[in-house]
Amino acid sequence: MEPFRLLHPDLVPQRRESLQHAASMLVRMGLDDTVLSASTVHRRLARVVLASSDVIEWTPGCDSPGDCAGTDERLGVERVGGDRGGVFLSSVLIAYLDVLDNATRMGTSIGGDAWRTLVWAPTALFDHVLRRPQVGMTVVTPGTGSEHLPCERALAGRRLHLALMQAVRFAVSGVVRAQGDRPVVEDCATLATACLRAATVALAFASDVRGERTPPVLETAEHRFLWQVLGEVRAALPRARFEQFAAALRRLNDVCTASPLLVAGG
């Protein structure tokens, strides 16, 4: 696979308003979350367009965080700057398109509920950014292909996990920054929880290869950020909503620490 462009962790947007222009542009171009339910040919074309610098302005030269450099190198991640909103949203969409392409060609044993959890997150993200009414989603069913592409699967799943963790960071930043504005806080918490759950399924997808060794799960800058602000999130949320978020975070942590090849950064 070609390099996967991802924002430096310090450049991840923190406000919904900073994503609205890029999200609106992608909607006008038909390159928002709805592209995930398009035909295979359309999805592959959309991926080419989203990766083009003619559509998303990105600038190279952002070094990987010191403790993420090894992970980035293994996963072919290129840290970039430029249009933060455009890079942020396109990285999520590109990662999903790669997972869907692999699932179409290779099939998957991921169950229906888990698959819906995975593909719901980008709709939740665009709903949040654009303040769209939540009217449901088009379920994108995985294919039944029989190709054997374990390396591509591991790479696609792990890259999606990284992109979703940046979405979690964005949403949690909203929780922390909007303390006192209950509707915004709860909306951000709902998005963060959805993306955490999807990130957990993304790791399961990366390992969904019979007879293959589970790929290493490495701690990310976003994981560390979440643990650092957990107290602030607890203070900002009603108890029931915080417990939903915390349960999703614990589940992700369980999946990470269950890997026999875990390498913790930092």
How are the elements arranged and paired?
Elements: E1 4-7, H1 17-28, H2 40-50, E2 58-59, H3 69-75, E3 77-82, H4 84-106, H5 112-130, H6 150-177, H7 182-206, H8 221-236, H9 239-257
Parallel strand pairs: 1-3
Antiparallel strand pairs: 2-3
Overall pLDDT confidence:
87
Low-confidence stretches: 259-266
Distance between the termini: 28 Å
Main beta sheet strand tally, sense and closure: 3 strands, mixed
Read across the widest sheet, the strand sequence of neighbours is 1-3-2
What quaternary form is this?
Answer: single chain
Helix content bin: 55-70%
- The rough form would be described as globular
Structural class by helix and strand composition: mainly alpha
Describe the structure.
With 266 residues, the protein is mainly alpha-helical. The chain has one domain (4-132, 142-257). 60% of the residues lie in helices and 5% in strands. The protein has nine helices and three strands. The two termini are 28 Å apart.
